[in-house]
Specification:
Helix content is about 50%, strand content about 0%. With about 90 residues, it is an all-alpha fold. It has a domain at about 10-65.
């Protein structure tokens, strides 16, 4: 998992990995849109400020539990299916 005190770029990379593993066709787009929705900012603003340092609590809330339990991760917003790794 990405370091939760890192940049938004790192967090979005981890979200892309999770969503790609779950079979999402365009995981980069979905990760960006999920973060934009959660942070209540436009996607263009997210892209322009992607090198900013993150609040670790907000990053943890976005990715969900890291102990292997199912929970609130970017995938929780998507329909469940047999290909889901969430």
């Amino acid at each position: 998992m990405t370091e939760l005190t890192g940049s938004l770029t790192g967090l979005l990379a981890e979200a892309r990995r999770i969503l790609g593993t779950a079979g999402i066709l365009d995981p980069a787009r979905e990760a960006l849109l999920l973060w934009a929705d959660m942070s209540d900012e436009p996607a263009a603003g997210v892209l322009l400020a992607s090198s900013r340092t993150l609040d670790p609590n907000l990053a943890a809330a976005f990715l969900g539990p890291s102990n292997g339990e199912r929970g609130e991760s970017p995938c929780h917003m998507l329909p469940a299916g047999p290909a889901s790794d969430c």
